[in-house]
């Protein structure tokens, strides 16, 4: 059986994910997918359009969507699924997962990610290096953790939220979990001590809504 794996996105994060895919799937055929690339290959892997990827002969095809923007990732996932190409989950061997962790399809878990106990995570989650998810968290679909995110226990994160590098999310309680709303952005190094409404960007310590001026 020929398994063809596409890494969707040949820019920065995609070039970090591709070696992880090679490590975990050393015997498979791997290519980047990028519909707007000006070059034909990068780091030893060819770059194809999605159309070319679909046309390549293989008995099994899957894709790792290496795009940081959750909204874009959702659209690409929908596009690939319509073509019969399902997302592939990838995790580095250093990833730690403890008891009762359930993660949906398409997750990318990079080096030294830790997910503790009684955690539920939705579709196409991305956790970059040294991030952690603590006990009793609920993370929805297409959520992105940049490097070094500290997500403490009893936190609920809605669809398409983006958590920036080094952000810290305070622990909630079983009765009142701390909630990061749909499409919210937590800025780099922010310390989140209370709920973040949907669509809002927060920055600073303690995190407050970003005021543009």
Spatial order of strands in the largest sheet: 7-10-13-16-19-22-24-25
In CATH terms, the superfamily of the largest domain is Hexapeptide repeat proteins
Alpha-carbon distance between the termini? 57 Å
Q: What are the low-pLDDT stretches, counting only 5+ consecutive residues below 50?
A: none
Oligomerization category of the chains in this entry: single chain
CATH topology of the largest domain: UDP N-Acetylglucosamine Acyltransferase, domain 1
Query: Main sheet, how many strands, which sense, barrel?
Result: 8 strands, mixed
CATH architecture assignment name of the largest domain: 3 Solenoid
Q: How would you describe the shape?
A: globular
Helix count from the secondary structure assignment: 3
SSE order, as H and E?
EHEEEHEHEEEEEEEEEEEEEEEEEEEE
Total DSSP E strands: 25
Helix content: 10-25%
Mean pLDDT value: 95
> How many individual domains?
2
Radius of gyration using CA atoms only: 17 Å
Decide which structural class fits the backbone.
alpha/beta
Proportion of strand residues? 25-35%
CATH class (first level) name of the largest domain: Mainly Beta
Describe the structure.
The protein has 2 domains: 3-88, Rossmann fold (3-Layer(aba) Sandwich); 91-203, Hexapeptide repeat proteins (UDP N-Acetylglucosamine Acyltransferase, domain 1). Helices cover 15% and strands 32% of the residues. The chain has helices at 12-24, 50-55, 70-82, and strands at 3-8, 29-33, 41-42, 45-48, 60-65, 86-87, 90-91, 96-97, 101-103, 108-109, 114-115, 119-121, 126-127, 132-133, 138-139, 144-145, 150-151, 155-157, 162-163, 168-169, 178-180, 185-186, 191-192, 201-203, 208-209. Strand 24 and strand 25 (208-209) form a beta hairpin. It is globular and about 50 Å long. The model has no long low-confidence stretch (mean pLDDT 95).
């Amino acid at each position: 059986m020929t398994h063809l794996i596409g890494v969707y996105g040949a820019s920065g994060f995609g070039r970090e994910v591709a070696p992880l895919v090679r490590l975990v799937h050393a015997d498979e055929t791997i290519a980047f997918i990028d519909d707007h690339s000006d070059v034909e290959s990068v780091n030893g892997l060819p770059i194809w359009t999605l159309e070319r990827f679909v046309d390549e002969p293989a008995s099994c095809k899957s894709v790792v969507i290496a795009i940081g923007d959750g909204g874009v990732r959702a659209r690409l996932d929908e596009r690939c699924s319509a073509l019969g190409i399902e997302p592939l989950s990838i995790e580095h061997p250093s990833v730690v997962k403890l008891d009762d962790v359930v993660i949906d399809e398409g997750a990318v878990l990079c080096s030294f990610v830790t997910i503790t106990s009684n955690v539920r995570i939705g579709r196409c989650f991305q956790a970059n290096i040294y991030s952690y998810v603590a006990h009793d968290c609920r993370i929805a679909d297409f959520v992105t953790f940049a490097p070094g995110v500290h997500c403490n226990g009893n936190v609920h994160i809605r669809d398409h939220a983006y958590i920036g590098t080094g952000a810290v999310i305070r622990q909630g309680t079983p009765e009142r979990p701390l909630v990061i709303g749909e499409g919210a952005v937590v800025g780099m190094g922010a310390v989140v001590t209370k709920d973040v409404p949907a669509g809002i960007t927060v920055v600073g310590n303690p995190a407050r809504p970003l005021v543009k001026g």
